[in-house]
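Data availability (excerpt). The following record was deposited with the supplementary files.
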Amino acid sequence: MTDPRRALPSVNALLSADVAQPFLARAPRALVADAVRDAIAGARRDPAHAPRDDREWEAAIATALAARERRSLRPVLNATGVVLHTNLGRAPLPQAALDAIAEAAAGYANLEYDLDAGTRGSRYGHCVSLLRELTGAEDALVVNNGAAALVLALDTLAAGRDAIVSRGELVEIGGSFRIPDIMAKSGARLVEVGTTNRTHADDYRRALGPTTGAVVKVHRSNFALAGFVADVPVRELVAICAEHGVPVVHDLGSGLFLSLAAFSLRGEPVAAEAVREGATVVTMSGDKLLGGPQAGIALGRADAIARMRRNPLTRALRVDKLTLAALEATLALYRDPPRALREIPALALLTTPVESLRARAEAIAAALVEAGHAATAVPSEGSVGGGAFPTAVLPSAAVALGGAADAEALDARLRHASVPVVGRIADGRLLLDLRSVPARDDPALTAAVLAALA
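Predicted structure:
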C-alpha cells in the first residue's frame, strides 16, 4: 500500500502555487516558508487529516502562519478568582498608568535631565515626592522589584556583617525563591534567632553585637501562624536596636497604601503605618496591593536611602522610564482614596460587592443558555493572591460550565482561544470566577466561551 505522505507537496511547490500568494503579499517570504513547512509537517504527522485541496492547504498555512506571528506575551482573561495572580502578571494597571506609559514611550522624556537647571538629572528623583507625601517617609528609592529593594538595603547596610532575622520569618516566596537565599546574595551573614512559632525581644538582644549590620523584620504576607505564637513588633525592635546603633530593615511585602478593613480585609500593614513604626528602611513591591507596575520601593530615613542610592548595585537594579511613569500615575490616584478604590483595578476587584458579581454571573450564564449551552451561575470563593491577606476568603460568583467528562477539554479550548481565558476546575466543572474579571470584560468572556463551546 502506498504511503499517502509520499503525495505531500514540497515546500517550494506550495510557495510557487496560488495558495501561498496571499500570504507572501503580506508577510516576509522566510516566515511564510516556515509556516508552509509547519503545515506539511502537520500533514505528515497525521496523514488521515492532511489537506486535500487548495482550500484546505490555505487553511493549514493560515493556521501555521498565525501561530508563528502570535506574540509570546499575550493578554488573557483571568477567571481564576485570584486577583493578584502572579502567573498572570499580578495587578492590572489603572488607565492613568496606561496613559502615562503611552506618553513616556512615544518620545523622549526627562528621565535623567533636570529641566530647571538644564543639566543632567537623576532617574531616582521621580516618584520620590509622591512617596514621601503618601507615607511620611523622609526619602524613597524605586528599583526594579521588591526582592531587589531588600537585597539593595542589606547590601548597603549590612554587607560583610550579620543580618539578624527570626526563624519564623524565613519565608519562601513565589517560584521557590527564599528570603534567606535572597539575603545571602546581599553579602550579609544570616543570623537566625527564636523558633518557628515564637521569637522574643531577648532573642534579638542576645544576638546583637559588634558584628551586627542590621536586624531584618519580614512580614509574613503569604501565610499565617496561629496558636502558640509570639513575635516582636517593629516599634519594639527599633527601640532595642537604637541602643546598639543598628538599623532595622522591614520587608513589608505587598505594598498596601490604603486600609481595606472596611471590606473585611485585615492584617496587612499599610505603608504609612509601617514607616511610622520607625524602621530605618521599609521595602515593598509595586505590583501587588499598591496596584501599580512591577517595582521595588524603599522608604525610610534620608541617610540610609541616600547610601542605597549611591550603591553601585543600584544601577543594575534600576527601573526604566515606563515603570516610573506608570508608578507615578498610580501613586497620584492615592491622593483621593475613593478615586483610588474606583480606578486602581486591583483595589476595585478586591472590593466589588458579591451581589454585583452574582448579577453578572447570572447574565453571562443566561446568554450561554440562550445560545443552547449548559451554564449555571454558582457561588464561589476568590482570593487576594500575590502573597497578601493569605487567610482571606473573598465571597464571589462564577459561571459553571461542563461536567466531569469535558471540563478539562473545555478548559484547554479556552486557554487556546484568540483571547485566552484561564479558569479553574472544581468538582468536575470548569468555573469562571468573576472576582478577578473586570465588568468591562464580560462581553469578551462570553464571546470566548461561546466560541469554545461551538
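Summary of structural features: The chain has three domains: 9-68, 77-86+348-453, 93-343.
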